[in-house]
Amino acid sequence: MVNYIEAATAPAKNTGAIRIYGEDAFAGMRKACQLTARCLDELAAIVEPGVPTDVIDRFVFEFGMDHGAYPATLNYRGYMKSSCTSINHVVCHGIPNDKPLREGDIVNIDVTYVLDGWHGDSSRMYPVGEIKRSAERLLEVTYESLMRGIAAVRPGARTGAIGEAIQTYAEGERCSVVRDFCGHGVGSLFHDSPNILHYGRVNDGPELREGMIFTIEPMINLGKPHVKVLGDGWTAVTRDRSLSAQYEHTVGVTATGCEIFTLSPGGLDRPGLPPLQG
């Protein structure tokens, strides 16, 4: 049985109940998420061949500090970086280091800022210089998967409708959907209920209700969906070493659909890719 609770009276931990937020929370999330989106916009000019991911991570930390925000990943369960940088066959949770990016790489940069107690969580893919058409196509499919999942969000639908929209499209494009990681509730907590699976059936999962806030963050592989976590306990990679991509938005369920809190203010939701038509 799924329980829903007014966020204002909920305990400050994930109890399994789904929080329902009010307009004040939506206002706070807009600010936190837009700060994250602005940081990701700025990174479009920084990501290039020869730049170590530690440089990216340092920028994320300093940008947050300059704007009164703290990176949620820093010191989270022992994680010691301000962002995640996942390159090529790394699915998620790649740890920034001093190794430089190379021409032809694709990298996901995942940033979450805590601003006035609210968590703004988003990630984007960045091509490093000129990339192969197969990599560009993966980015296009992954972004479209995200947006199709978002389009399924409305009161009365179920979380499975999000997963079905993503899975149907991605697999129809001869890609695979990672099962081992999912989206999640977010807001006053970094990770909360419900889990948002990126595969499934339209009638599966909890009912979506106005006031829910969560991330949608599909991880799409060119090869098979299977992943493994490396010995550092964080870095997840494709088992067949095929390319993987991910885009992530934080959304809030409204009376008529949803609001995307993390949209790029500079129109850079797909940095390095051709503009969408129409």
Provide structural commentary.
With 278 residues, the protein is an alpha+beta fold. The protein has one domain (2-258): Alpha-Beta Complex (Creatine Amidinohydrolase). 24% of the residues lie in helices and 25% in strands. The protein is built from four helices and 17 strands. The chain has helices at 23-43, 53-66, 133-151, 159-172, and strands spanning 4-6, 18-20, 70-71, 84-87, 90-92, 106-115, 118-127, 176-177, 183-185, 192-196, 213-216, 219-221, 227-229, 236-238, 244-246, 249-253, 258-260. Strands 3, 4, 6 and 7 form a four-stranded antiparallel sheet that branches. A three-stranded antiparallel sheet has the order 5-14-13, with no helix packed on it. It has a three-stranded antiparallel sheet with strand order 8-12-15, covered by helices on one side. Strand 6 and strand 7 (118-127) form a beta hairpin. Helix 1 crosses helix 2 (53-66) and helix 3 (133-151) packs antiparallel against helix 4 (159-172). The radius of gyration is 17 Å and the shape is globular. The termini are far apart. The mean pLDDT is 97.
